[in-house]
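LAB NOTEBOOK - FOLDING QUEUE
OPERATOR: T.R.
BATCH SIZE: 2
PURPOSE: Compare the predicted structure-token outputs for two unrelated chains run back to back under identical settings.
PRIORITY: normal
REVIEWER: second-year student, initials M.K.

ITEM 1
FIELD SEQUENCE / FIELD STRUCTURE:
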Amino acid sequence: MKICIIAEGSYPYITGGVSSWIHSLITQMSEHEFIIYAIGAESKQKGKFKYKLPPNVVEVKETFLDAYLDEEVRWGSRFRLSAEERNTLQALIGGEGDLNWDRVFALLRSDKFVNVSDFLASKNYFDQLEQLCRFKYTHVPFTEMFWTVRSMILPLLLAIRSDVPQADIYHSVSTGYAGVIGALGKFLYGSPLLLTEHGIYSREREEEIIKADWVKGYFKDLWIEYFYRLSDCIYTAADQVVTLFGRNREIEIELGCPAEKIRIIPNGVRTSDYEALPSGPEDGKIRIGAVVRIVPIKDIKTMLQSFALVKREVPNAELVIMGPVEEDESYYEECLRMVEALEVQDVVFTGEVQVKEYLGKMDLLLLTSISEGQPLAVLEGMAAGKPFVTTNVGSCKELLNGADDGIGPCGLVAPVMHYEQIAQAIVTLCRNEGLRKDMGRNARERVQRYYKFEDFISEYRKLYATLGGDVRRWPESVLN
């Protein structure tokens, strides 16, 4: 079969997490061909892959959300739209009424629009936005509303107009833009659509927008509603939705995904890959490791504040933050300035590294994210037999405490952004070597029992076969 995996803001531009998950899935499914539909934020990422693509990747389709900057605009046009078409666009722009995505796809891909930017500079758009402001945003300056809505939906319209490769199965690995493209593929070719939701995309965007300085207060609800509408698109269109743990399933149902579509397939790791890792020097230091991208959603600033408190209680502690720094360089610079402002010593940013060369040297591991799904970094650390301190996000509490499995805890959980409680949990583990070893053994046992890599691959292999019908092997000569 030919499977189109649609990824937003991850594979193949960024390592770790969802990207590692995609790479593992493709590598293990040599009987299938894969197309990667990669959605990036900025065109400067084009061709800058962080992975050597497996031989069964037959095509990479790149599209970037900033492509609208290159479009020329004709102002003041007027398009002949039916009442149904006007209602469809009004629902897309303002969130009022039922949004029929098939109608959106049919309209925006029709020959009525040579250039979607023209519509957003047209009298039709002006009229519909004026109607929205009159009934819903009476106190918002019209010019601000005009440019805000335009910047919000223009990347979406361009994505819908883009070419979608034909495939036997479309597999989106998030909602959002990736979900819309998956639904578009199904609309164009009638192929089945699978969604795997690692974290809850719409909730993550909501958290970012609430904190964002670039979104004015009266536009925050508009942006948040927009991202929930994107999620609705694939929840409605998907033939099967996969999530990683029970709480995510409950949230998806709350957000409108039909319960009967959802099944749970946990992530998995090979514990054998994490045996006999290099150990650290006997120099009296307590090494605290964090395998994490340096981006706001991972809340590195809370991590640094926590470690500053830890150093007062455990002077021989060292914090080793392992992960790429270039994804959000301004945030990385802010973190460096925070280290200076806190006057805290023994903080090391390694950049992107081979994590297995470091894990064995760590005494405990740390994750302070404000949102997660079922983080592979935690599963990999558990496979290495390391205890954790995590925030109570995603499935972290379930991973560390189990679900009445009789194994025992393999770490401590603290509230999101509560740096004092995070610090106290770290200090507790730093001061008790026996507890660290017990939790490390529990961690390894839980992964071996419930989070096997082989089970994860087997479940997806069966799922692809069910959705796509008979599996057609492709030539061994290509694989070789």
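ITEM 2
FIELD SEQUENCE / FIELD STRUCTURE:
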Amino acid sequence: MADSPIRRVLVVGGGITGSTLALALARRGVHVILVEARRELGGGGHGITLQGNALKAFHSVGILDELAEHGFAFDKLRMFRADGVPLMEMPAPPMGGPGLPPTMGALRARLADILARHVTAAGVDVRTGTTVTAIDDRGHSVVAGLSDGSTETVDLLVGADGIRSTVRSMIGIDARPHSVGMGIWRVIARRPAAMDSSGVYYGGPKYKAGYTPISEELCYAFLLESNLDRSFVGEHPNGKILKEHGQGYGGVWGQVRDSLADDAIVNYQYIEAVLVDDPWFRGRSIVIGDAAHACPPLIAQGAAMCAEDAVILAEMLTGGDDVEQVLPKFMRRRLPRVRMVLENSLLLAEWEIHPDTPGADPGGLMGRTLGALCEPA
């Protein structure tokens, strides 16, 4: 690490963004305090699709090899009619560069557990069951009050606390998530032998259905439809309901649906989005990841954008410049890329909801977006 005036950083939130940032900073010699409201790091969640740029970020913090032992790598996306008839096959572009898989499916809980172990091993000061209650920016430092009654004086405070970020509002950024107008069912199931890549099914009774293999044994399947009653939100033994809502889809997706037990645990969430305008920071406090730019999962770039934020911020903070120089440079580097992904994801969602929109070209927009993301972050 170059001589850097940034020695102590408080990271709020121990999800993918916060854990990746904490690990990246610790590996570069920064003292990191990571506070997480939950009682422990890791665990939880469904499947996740990690494209090459996400894998590049995880490689940079030293967790990719372990993740690859448990995940499922592939190099294409297959598109089908609702009845399972193939439409086209799209090669997955090498967004992580040579030597890395184009895409990998993984169990989100596995990724979280791997990050948690590496964060702890790197010497990060992890405080679970704790969050920030006060932020006092003193110009040359930030004094943060924590829910355990302690205070910490740091060079930078980073809010990585998700789409409903507390830090975002505490530092005076008035941005709130909005509903995209669709909800998503997610479930973990046994992987049929024929499933060797992500697949998406169009033209059925709902907006879209699809899946991603996440290990040799398991897959992650999803169904997009309109917003349902709030009672469905969360994780419930709703396998029977998902099977009912997923009627009208065949092929491998239909096999996955039919394999579900009636009481299978299914996650349903409203799809929401938020984008904080430039800047994402106030003084020596900044929000990153979903706290700054949560996007619909239509391009499968949510985790990638979060992980890129984390490793790039760590790189720039330890490059020798002071915080006041780093944060505007970070914004200039990140905002155009993040805005493109979010706006294109929102447009794809709009086209899913209104498929007869004149000029709608989901495949073309997807291809252009992924092609642009082959450029280094």
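REVIEWER COMMENT (ITEM 2): The longest helix spans residues 323-353.
FOLLOW-UP: none requested
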